[in-house]
Amino acid sequence: MIELKELEIQNLHVEVEGKEILKGINLTVNKGEVAALMGPNGSGKSTLAYTLIGHPKYKITEGKIFFKGDDITSLPVDERAKKGLFLSFQYPQEIPGVTMGNFLRTAWMSLKGEKISVMDFMKKMKEKMSMLKMDPSFSTRYLNEGFSGGEKKRAEILQMAVLEPEMAILDETDSGLDIDALKIVSEGVNSLKGHNLGVLIITHYQRILNYIRPDRVHILVNGKIAKSGGADLAHHLEEFGYDWLHEEDATGQPK
């Protein structure tokens, strides 16, 4: 029996408002794997994240997206989420008047297609919060309202923990975090890693990869994967920047 790839992107071309941003992406992320997608600003990293989750602003002009062997290229956002895809936003939105607990309970019932009492859900949620070392008061606060940058990112990781996706896409989760918040968020992601979860970390900097070690690193430049390799590739990138990708010799090393 052939094992199906969890998330497979084939020759993906995407345009936004008539401008082509992604120019033929080929990428695979499997369950139990942590993959990092790195690249300079404007390379198309967030475009890929929003395209994977199905944002209607991002138009696929060519290529396919497969998840668990199914073609999801044309599926709406909610259907992708029900299949087990999750996106942690770079800039989480505030939702005044909606508590974290109510938001997550509603989302959980929608994704699972089951009903759960408030008491049973709060027990489940507090178990996840304890695992992530989060203050229980988070559950009664309005979603992201008045949250610091670190608290917003921790709230996103809590959503991931509660909703239990099979593939998590973390779009620049490290953006705007100080070192203490980065460590806390990374510990949360590491506590959720395992055979049942694939993770695609999208980042500009190498620093989060000091705390969440990737199995594979892919470098996106000008809408295309310019190079792929192991975790050491991120350190190489940190030392030499992105310019060496245009200057490397036949051995793959900078001139």
Q: What does it look like?
A:
The structure is a single chain. With 255 residues, the protein is of the alpha/beta class. It is built from 7 helices and 12 strands. The strands form 3 sheets. A 6-stranded mixed β-sheet has the order 6-9-10-3-11-12, with helices on both faces. The protein has a 4-stranded antiparallel β-sheet with strand order 2-1-4-5, with helices on one face. A hairpin with a 2-residue loop joins strand 11 and strand 12. The radius of gyration is 18 Å and the shape is globular. The C terminus is likely disordered.
Topology:
Elements: E1 7-16, E2 19-29, E3 34-38, H1 45-53, E4 59-67, E5 70-71, H2 77-83, E6 85-88, E7 95-99, H3 100-112, H4 118-131, E8 142-143, H5 149-163, E9 167-171, H6 179-192, E10 198-203, E11 216-221, E12 224-229, H7 232-240
Parallel strand pairs: 3-10, 3-11, 6-9, 9-10
Antiparallel strand pairs: 1-2, 1-4, 4-5, 7-8, 11-12
Helix pairs in contact: 3-5, 5-6
